[in-house]
Write a structure and sequence with these properties.
Low-confidence stretches: 12-27
CATH superfamily of the largest domain: Nitrogenase molybdenum iron protein domain
Distance between the termini: 67 Å
Strand content: 5-15%
Bound molecules: zinc ion
Structural class: alpha/beta
CATH topology of the largest domain: Rossmann fold
Radius of gyration: 23 Å
Largest sheet: 4 strands, parallel
Number of strands: 10
CATH architecture of the largest domain: 3-Layer(aba) Sandwich
Strand order of the largest sheet: 2-1-3-4
Helix content: 40-55%
CATH class of the largest domain: Alpha Beta
Number of helices: 10
Length: about 290
């Protein structure tokens, strides 16, 4: 290729790139909302509809308790119009919220946990508030109300659209709660064992008893695992719940010792509504021995 053609080609590429930039900027008209975890993404997308673009900072497969964001992820936050935090003291927020706000002082923070009654969780400092509020449909409804109020205040021109979407979303939550009540009917009061204590608000909603291998933020010891296996056997546990990233062999070992079945459920998945129903189904199948 001669020099003249190269120059023309470069010019064309520059023009096309800047056009793409313009198109990209037009798309950025949508409201940018950052959230901490993926279950919030499902909720905020449901309420914001096409008007908003939601980014979850803790990616799929990572723990909200120990995920470390890169500086570029925090810098990307500066493009957000609002940050909806879980608000329950999850480590990602307690550790990085100040840095995020320092780099983006104009960022509006919406606390989704206002009005939710926290359950206690035992950890190394004693009893703390259990941060996993999003595994319960009643709590998800309160969170949705807080998101609606926050977004409507920030973008009053869209308040009506948000309210319509919110009504539909809340109906979905209420239907899902009723479906799960049906699935779990007859096993109220039953106990199940979880590895990580993410499901106490779920248990509360259906009158179940959650036992957990991990106590708060402590890694279990060999002795504490044996103790909880004993406790689970005595409580008649038939289902042991692990996060999907958990080592399969260890999971099978613990479940076998308990005399139950190992199931893998992700409390940090985007479609938390379906995942909660999956857990209810596992528990009901475990209870009647068909699973
Ligand atoms: Zn957790």
């Amino acid at each position: 290729m001669n020099k003249a053609w190269t120059a023309i080609l470069v010019a064309v590429i520059v023009i096309m790139t800047s056009l793409a930039g313009c198109i990209g900027e037009e798309e950025s008209d949508s409201i940018k909302v950052a959230v901490t975890i993926l279950p919030q993404k499902q909720m905020d997308k449901a309420i914001g509809g096409d008007l908003i673009e939601v980014t979850a900072l803790v990616p799929s497969g990572q723990s909200v308790h120990d995920f470390t964001p890169t500086p570029s992820l925090i810098a990307k936050m500066s493009q957000s119009d609002a940050y909806v935090k879980v608000g329950t003291g999850v480590e990602f927020e307690t550790l990085y919220m100040n840095t995020i706000l320092e780099q983006n002082p104009g960022l509006t923070v919406i606390d989704s946990s206002i009005g939710i009654e926290m359950l206690p969780l035992l950890d190394s400092d004693g009893t703390v508030d259990d941060p996993h509020i999003w595994t319960n449909f009643t709590n998800l409804e309160v969170m949705a109300n807080n998101v609606l109020a926050g977004l409507s205040e920030l973008f009053p021109e869209h308040a009506e659209a948000f309210a319509v979407n919110h009504t539909i979303y809340v109906q979905t939550l209420q239907d899902a709660r009723n479906t799960n009540r049906d699935i779990l009917s007859g096993i109220e009061g039953d106990a199940f064992l979880v590895y990580h204590p993410s499901w106490s608000y779920f248990s509360q909603e259906y009158g179940l008893t959650m036992l957990s291998v991990e106590k708060g933020d402590k890694e279990p010891t060999a002795i504490s695992i044996l103790e909880v296996i004993d406790e689970a056997r005595n409580a008649g546990v038939t289902v042991v719940v692990f996060p999907p990233q958990f080592d399969r062999d260890t999971a099978e070992y613990i479940a076998d010792e308990v005399g139950g079945e190992a199931v893998f459920v992700d409390p940090l998945i985007e479609d938390i509504i379906a995942e909660i129903e999956a857990l209810a189904t596992h528990l009901s199948q475990g209870a009647d021995g068909s699973g």
